[in-house]
Amino acid sequence: MLSEKTIQIVKSTLPLLAQAGPQVTEYFYDRMFSYNPELKNIFNMTHQQSGSQQFALFNALAAYAANIDNLAVLKGALARINHKHTSYHILPEHYPIVGGHLIATLKELLPEQFTPEVEYAWREAYSLLADVCINEEMSLYQKTKKAPGGWFGTRTFTITEKRMESSQICSFILTPADAKPVVVYLPGQYLGIKVTPANSDLTQVRQYSLSQQSNGRNYRISVKEEGLVSNYLHSLTEGDEVEIYPPAGDFVLREIDSPVVLISAGIGQTPMMAMLETLLSNQPNQSIHYLHACDSETQFAFKEYLIQQQQAHASLHCVTWFKDGKGGDFAGLMDVNHIAESLPISKGDFYLCGPIAFMAMIKEQLLGIGVASERIHYEVFGPHQSL
């Protein structure tokens, strides 16, 4: 436990963080990669270039400092971080490296304000946070390792099937090279995939949502052709192998009997497919609304599957928005007000996945028609942000 003095000192540095802004985290990453370039093989360098990782870390630092005396407030955020860390295979030995560079960054950027007393308080505070994360992440690692079909670290999988789902999205069936079972996962979770693209000097780790119901035999991911690693995966053929970390993620379908509304845009369909398949298999009479938006019909993945399932299940209601206005139920951007009367506003659980701007827009629409905020759940691809 932290002393009251330490808590007050850390909280008092909030104005310093606000004054320095994301410059703190930008400097931190530059410093860390300069002294420890091997970490470039763990961190997503694309997020470094875009600035999204720096922004996310700055927000996390500020949130931790503000709630250091009540970490329960950060339980959801920490759980999300812990799952993401396991998909990158972050280990206890990484925490002292990160902590050392964080303290050094604050000392170097704020030499007058970051006094020895402040430094001591921040070291204590970081140590507490590291212990919390390490304990939770080791628990997640052990749980997965001990589960039937589970493992620790990477495991080799073979691409046993490739199938185009739309003009840009390709599904990959991944089967373990050792022909043994695979650990089951919850609908909505993702895999960490470790590859070294031909045009990259670095090992790259990316997360891809599992896009089918868990079956204990293989995994399916569905990948949009954009970005370094996704383009590389599209270039692979059946028979090629990839290294995979076990399933992770806390954005999962809740075990409930209430109606479910799955809302996605673009590649955000992927976790929704796992949720939909699971619901149709386990609770076929449960009311399900599947809402999807994309630029055009050619980019609408899993179209035939959705048509078949809607014909087979009277409880499934699919509605689409195509931006170009050609086909689909509605033209332009998604607007749930078009179908508000048919949605389970008071009793349903709403799951969102897609670009940040899309989800923020839909969350605002849902709140506007009376959906309670605690019934709105969402997944962010990349560094987590609040809607």
Would you state the CATH class of the largest domain? Mainly Alpha
Total number of domains: 3
- How many distinct beta strands? 12
Quickly give the structural class: alpha/beta
| CATH A-level architecture of the largest domain | Orthogonal Bundle
Strand order in the sheet with the most strands: 4-3-6-1-2-5
Average pLDDT works out at 91
Number of helices: 12
* Rg, Å, rounded: 22 Å
Tell me the series of helices and strands, N- to C-terminal.
HHHHHHHHEEEEEHEEHEHEEEHE
Helix proportion: 40-55%
Please give a structural write-up.
By secondary structure, the chain is of the alpha/beta class. It folds into three domains: 4-146, Orthogonal Bundle (Globin-like); 155-248, Elongation Factor Tu (Ef-tu), domain 3 (Beta Barrel), CATH 2.40.30.10; 260-379, Nucleotide-binding domain of ferredoxin-NADP reductase (FNR) module (Rossmann fold), CATH 3.40.50. 40% of the residues lie in helices and 19% in strands. It has a six-stranded antiparallel β-sheet. A six-stranded parallel β-sheet has the order 10-9-8-7-11-12, with helices on both faces. Helix 6 (75-88) crosses helix 8 and helix 7 (94-109) runs antiparallel to helix 8 (116-146). The longest helix is centred in the middle third of the chain and has 31 residues, at 116-146. The chain starts with a helix and ends in an 8-residue tail after the last strand. The model has no long low-confidence stretch (mean pLDDT 91).
